[in-house]
C-alpha cells in the first residue's frame, strides 16, 4: 500500500492554493504530452484484434490479444472481445498505451477471475481480474468480476493505475475491494459497481458519473463501506467524486451501509446530485474503526442529493465533513475542473457532463 501512495504522489501532487478544497488542476494541455493520441484519429470502432472463445477471432484469450498491443503507441489500438465468459486474469502493462477494449455488453462479455487473499496470499493490487497500467486505457461494454466470495476477503475485480483511463458502460462485481481506483485520473460513466467492504477504494482522482453503486449483504459481523479513499498527502489532487449516480442495495441488505470511511488522513470523497436509497445509514459516513472519530483533515461532502437516504439530520459531525458543500466547491469536483476531462474524454462518442 505504501507503493501506491508514493506512485500517486509523484503523479498527481501539486501545491494546493486553497487548503481543504480541491480546485482545478494546473491547466497544461495533455494533447502535447508524449503518448497522447494522434489528432487525425477517427472515432469509429474498428478492431485491430478480435477475441472469441469459439475460435472465430484472431485470439481465443484476451491476454493473447493484449500481447499484440504496440508499446507506447500514440494511436489507439482496438481489441473487440466477443460475447462470452473469459476466465482469465488480464494485465495491461505500463507500456501498453491507448488500448481500447470493448465487448458486446457488460453482462454479455465478462472477464472472470478468483484470485484472492485467503487462497493466494494476494492483496487487491495483484488479485484484480483486470489490471490496467498503461496510460489512456479504455474499456467499454464489458463486465469484470471476482468470484472468490466474501469469505476470501480482499479479491478485486479491477485495478486501474492508468492515467486518463475510462470505463464506459462496464460492470464491476465482487465483495471486498471490488474496484481499486489506484492512481491518476480516471472516469467512469454508465457503469455498475457492487460490493461490500471498501468496494471503491484507492488514491486516484476519479469521477463516477451516472453509475449504479450497489451494496451487497456482507458476512456476519461486517458492515458496508462504499468508498475508502486513501489520500495521504494534502498536496495530492486526488479524491472520489460520485456525480448523478444511484446508490442502493443489490438484493436484501440488512447490514449497516455507509458512503465511505477514511483509509488515510486526507481521504477525500463527495456525493453530488445523486439518488440515495434507504440502505445508507443515517450517519452517512464511518470512521476507519467503529466508535472512533475520523481525522479532522479529511474532506467528505454532500451536495444536492435526493432520495430516502439523503437526509442530513443524523449525519456525523466531524470537522472534516461538509453536509452541504457550496456550489463552487461542488464544481471543483466536476469532470472538467477535477480531471480536465475535455482534454482526453473524446473520440469515442462517450457521453459525459463536464460540469455539475
From TrEMBL:
Record-listed E.C. numbers: 3.1.1.11
According to its UniProt entry, the protein's GO biological process terms are: cell wall modification; pectin catabolic process
Domain called Pectinesterase catalytic: residue spans = 48-341
Q: Which residues form the signal peptide?
A: none
Where does the record say this protein resides?
A: Secreted, Cell wall
The annotated active site, in chain numbering, is 198
Coarsely, its chief localization is: secreted
Q: Which reaction does it catalyse?
A: [(1->4)-alpha-D-galacturonosyl methyl ester](n) + n H2O = [(1->4)-alpha-D-galacturonosyl](n) + n methanol + n H(+)
Task: Indicate the enzyme's highest-level EC class.
Answer: hydrolase
Its Gene Ontology molecular function terms? pectinesterase activity
Q: What Pfam families does UniProt report for this protein, alphabetically?
A: Pectinesterase
Pathway as given in its UniProt record: Glycan metabolism; pectin degradation; 2-dehydro-3-deoxy-D-gluconate from pectin: step 1/5
How is this protein named in the record? Pectinesterase
In its UniProt entry, the species of origin is given as Salvia splendens (Scarlet sage)
